[in-house]
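Researcher: We plan to redesign the surface later, but first we want a full-length starting point. Tokens attached.
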């Protein structure tokens, strides 16, 4: 298994994994993003960044997508938008390596906080984050508009 920065040409595989994640999260019809838009956002406009996980056959089997956010209290933050590895590759520590690569990026960017969300029913993900010492805050309610 290999973790590397996403590069042009990876957008279709990342999009496929995003759709798999949406299916797992019981929201497959919510994905309206496209591979073409991902390509623009990742590699032309630099709206976000991503790492991908390749298996031994160099097939992309996981990804982490993140971007710079801002807190009026803390300053620069990194927001981990999605983190997904296909279930058959969950063993062997590659998830921890990928997550720690994002944490390392947050430190390199000099951010004061790293944020993400996890569904309250996703016990395997909750256990994963707790294993890494994350604070899972149940106090805040998410607000959202769709346009």
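Model: Full-length starting sequence:
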């Amino acid at each position: 298994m290999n973790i590397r920065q996403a590069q042009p040409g990876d957008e279709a595989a990342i999009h496929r994994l995003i759709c798999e994640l949406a299916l797992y999260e019981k929201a497959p019809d919510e994905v309206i993003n496209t591979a073409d838009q991902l390509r623009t956002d990742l590699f032309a406009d630099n709206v976000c960044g991503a790492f991908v996980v390749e298996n031994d056959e160099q097939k992309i089997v996981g990804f982490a997508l993140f971007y710079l956010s801002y807190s009026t209290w803390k300053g620069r933050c990194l927001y981990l938008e999605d983190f997904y590895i296909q279930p058959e590759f969950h063993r062997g520590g590659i998830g921890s390596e990928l997550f720690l690569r994002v944490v390392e990026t947050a430190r390199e960017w000099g951010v004061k906080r790293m944020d993400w969300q996890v569904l309250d029913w996703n016990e395997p993900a909750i256990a994963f984050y707790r294993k890494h010492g994350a604070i899972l805050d149940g106090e805040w309610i998410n607000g959202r508009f769709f346009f």
